[in-house]
């Protein structure tokens, strides 16, 4: 009789994996965890990141936290706050870089997703699915101008990819103008539009035809259009964020977006607004396009679109443009884009934004927040260069990167999560839930004030 060792080993391994899975599932199931469980979760998380996710995250967390706080593990959330496994509560002013516009686990969004989940989670992809049609109709109603047809995605990057492909197909041109400090995502197509050299360099050459011009410089934009046209490389589209997010909350100069629109019209190019971060009420209007009264040909959405519950994104385009995909709707597809759970989340999210007048609230609370932060920074002009923003999209720019990191660290210690931006760490961003209470705003401001007086220049 021979014993099959490898099969014994396999059995043993399967049992270990099963036991581990059951332990994890039992923790997911729990409403409250005890201290021992919290300790186990923290250890498994830190070990898991070091051995199997990417130890670089641990090094990064150490640069933005004090003492042992790099190992803080998030566990539950509600309203404008989340808690770590040890029960410490944080006011979330970062929120996945602006995904919690309707708050963390907004009950109406959770209900819609749960109700949908009980009936059908994903779709066959072949039959007609109802929620996609209904969400597309809602989007046509709430997006500016004559934006009419929607294509659904799972992320911001995918929305940008879809917009670029649609613009190419519509225009039969291959030149794109993007801007310095832009962030459009990190897939090869969207990265072509993104500006930061550090993220682009290892992957060059990206898709050909991209030119970057300084954001806000209309003369450069005009000259680039003229040059492209004169050398026979006509511009398919200009892609930009109406307010740059990752770039450090950069507001467009007066009339800039209107003038870009005019240039696009003059040269027969499309205008793509990447509203992945500025959309869904963040800037004080449903879309930043409304704020600046400019109608793009294609708008890109994601981040807060799924209500902070489901990953979801979309592009919405004018019929004239989108009809390039009528003949063959399979020209650009994604398996999960527009799935029933994501659509349920997005529909409920838009409902909450409208019913609770959250864009208006963002404008009002944002103005108060901005003023209070400016007051708190008085006397610290040696550290703080500028505080700016629109609605609840606020940036605090320091003279030095280190000050930004030190302020983030100090605020995290005191239970407020803010973050340096990926592209410009001199600026920390404040992008809380649009439902944030005034008391919470006051706490963030007083924390900022306290920390600012403690950090060195
Ligand atoms: C975050 C962001 C993206 C990328 O979205 P992902 O969901 O991370 O792929 C694209 N554009 C803008 C303006 C963003 O802020």
TrEMBL record:
Write out the entry's keywords from A to Z.
Answer: Aminotransferase, Pyridoxal phosphate, Transferase
PROSITE patterns, per database record: AA_TRANSFER_CLASS_3
Cofactor(s) needed by this chain: pyridoxal 5'-phosphate
What EC identifiers does the entry list? 2.6.1.82
Record-linked Pfam families: Aminotran_3
**InterPro entries associated with the record:** Aminotrans_3, Aminotrans_3_PPA_site, Class-III_PLP-dep_AT, PyrdxlP-dep_Trfase, PyrdxlP-dep_Trfase_major, PyrdxlP-dep_Trfase_small
Q: Which GO terms describe its molecular function?
A: putrescine--2-oxoglutarate transaminase activity
Q: Which family does it belong to?
A: Belongs to the class-III pyridoxal-phosphate-dependent aminotransferase family.
What PANTHER family is this protein classified in? Answer: AMINOTRANSFERASE CLASS III, PUTRESCINE AMINOTRANSFERASE
Q: Can you name this protein?
A: Putrescine aminotransferase
Which organism does this sequence originate in?
Neobacillus pocheonensis
């Amino acid at each position: 009789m021979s014993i099959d060792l490898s099969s014994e080993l396999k059995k043993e391994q399967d049992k270990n994996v099963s036991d581990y899975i059951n332990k994890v599932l039992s923790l997911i199931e729990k409403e409250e965890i005890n201290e021992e469980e919290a300790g186990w979760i923290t250890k498994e998380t830190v070990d898991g990141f070091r051995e199997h996710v990417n130890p670089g995250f641990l090094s990064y967390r150490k640069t933005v936290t004090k003492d042992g706080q790099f190992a803080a593990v998030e566990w539950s959330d509600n309203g404008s706050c989340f808690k770590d496994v040890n029960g410490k509560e944080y006011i979330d002013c970062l929120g996945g870089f602006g995904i919690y516009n309707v708050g963390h686990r907004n009950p109406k969004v959770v209900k819609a997703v749960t109700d949908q989940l009980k009936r059908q989670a994903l779709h066959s992809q072949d039959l007609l699915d109802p929620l996609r049609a209904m969400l597309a109709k809602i989007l046509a109603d709430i997006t500016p101008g004559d934006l009419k047809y929607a294509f659904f995605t799972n992320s911001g990057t995918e929305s940008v990819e879809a917009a670029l492909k649609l613009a190419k197909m519509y225009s039969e041109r291959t030149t794109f103008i993007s801007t310095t400090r832009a962030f459009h995502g990190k897939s090869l197509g969207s990265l072509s539009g993104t500006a930061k050299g550090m993220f682009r360099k290892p992957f060059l050459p990206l898709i050909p035809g991209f030119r970057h011009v300084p954001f806000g410089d209309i003369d450069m934009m005009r000259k680039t259009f003229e040059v492209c046209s004169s050398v026979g490389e006509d511009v398919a589209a200009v892609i930009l964020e109406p307010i740059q997010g990752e770039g450090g909350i950069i507001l467009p100069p007066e009339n800039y977006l209107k003038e870009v629109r005019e240039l696009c019209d003059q040269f027969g190019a499309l205008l793509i607004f990447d509203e992945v971060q500025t959309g869904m009420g963040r800037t004080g209007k449903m879309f930043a396009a409304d704020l600046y009264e400019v109608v793009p040909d294609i708008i890109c959405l994601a981040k807060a679109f799924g209500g902070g519950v489901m990953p979801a994104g979309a592009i919405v385009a004018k019929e004239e443009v989108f009809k390039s995909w009528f003949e063959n709707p399979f020209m650009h597809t994604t398996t999960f884009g527009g799935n029933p759970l994501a659509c349920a989340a997005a529909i409920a999210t838009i409902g909450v934004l409208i019913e609770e007048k959250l864009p208006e609230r963002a404008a009002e609370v944002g103005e108060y927040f901005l003023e209070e932060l400016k007051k708190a920074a008085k006397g610290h002009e040696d550290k703080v260069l500028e505080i700016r923003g629109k609605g609840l999209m606020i940036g605090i720019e320091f003279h030095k990167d280190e000050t930004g990191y030190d302020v983030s660290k100090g605020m995290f210690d005191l239970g407020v999560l803010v973050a340096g931006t990926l592209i410009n760490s001199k600026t920390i961003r404040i992008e809380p839930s649009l439902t944030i209470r005034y008391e919470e705003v006051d706490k963030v401001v007083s924390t900022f004030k306290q920390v600012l007086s403690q950090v060195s220049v």
